[in-house]
Amino acid sequence: MRTSAAEIRGALERDELVFDYQPKVSFLSGRASGAEALIRWRRDDGSVTLPEAFIHVAEREGLIPAITEAMFPRLIEDFRRVRAAGHDVTVALNVTAQDLDTPRLLELVRAATGEGAIGGEHLELEITESAVVSGSDTTRASLAALTEAGVPLAMDDYGTGFSSLATLNRLPFSAIKMDQSFVLRMLRSPKSANLVKASVAMAQMMGVKTVIEGIESEGVYHSLLHCGCSEGQGYWISPPLAPDAYLSFLAAERRWPASPVGMLRMARLSHTWQQSLLLDEVFAFLRSRDQGELDLEGLHTAHTACTLGRWYYGLGRSFAGDPDFEALEAPHRRMHEACAEVFVSLRATPDHRALRPLLEDLAADSTRVAECLQRLETRLLIEELDAPGPAARR
Question: Is 350 helix (H, G, I), strand (E, B) or coil?
């Protein structure tokens, strides 16, 4: 059915545009962690028009900012009801380049967070890569201002653009949302499965979380469970729900399969990757005639600030008391002390013979860390296999 700009304006005047909410689940806890707000047009005859039938017209006619201005207060009111019911969850809103090219979105967000209607950490804005790549300087300035306001930004439909890596490197995204076309093919296409899992690992290296959409079956959910994704959504978890139904969904406190293995694997992967990167850069420094072009200092952080350290002193504390987890701290700390000595040695005299004992100590401690992580992961996997079937309470 063709939709005109006049009909959209009429829908705004009659307050016919509403949100449905598609729940997201944390792979770490197995609990609902939030939802994506999806716009719907509920006409006065009871029929529902999905956004594919009218959003492109709204974009062409420049009506997106008007829709966002009308709908943002509804989003905040729906969120208020959710929080009043005692649910500590997030909500994600899709925005476009038109939203970011006008000051109104930023004004709405700042007003809502400033008045305490919603915390910045509870609101996430999803933007397609095409919107920011083709956007203006104003678009990019808006993204920076939203980040400064404490609102996380997620790159939607990740993997479908031509410059995703460049965009991630250039703009302040804190999450990527894998395009569901890859996810839907995971079980029948090893290449798609590898693309998804490699993207998760790459995001982890960049300190960016991964959200997976398009989880349409239990098999897909379980294939993602250990790969390090943060959250997932899809019809196997739940279709989009009207606000009252979403509140009932949260009240039911359903549980889905959960595992700390993905988080642990990402910590181990980050540890191995950062050590390899350090060795590669030391080698390049020693072999380079223009050593001033290499920034070795950027590779060295405190033992609490590297990726493994942030995990160990953060989410990893759930393993406190486990002997393999506790055994990580000493060799990991020594690794950072050895790194500091490597940099001192390089500044004093770039002689690989002086570095050899330091690098050997570094490698030995790195092996101890990796062995502890591997033993911990293997034990967790065995415990999961021995546990009863992980069917979700539907």
Answer: coil
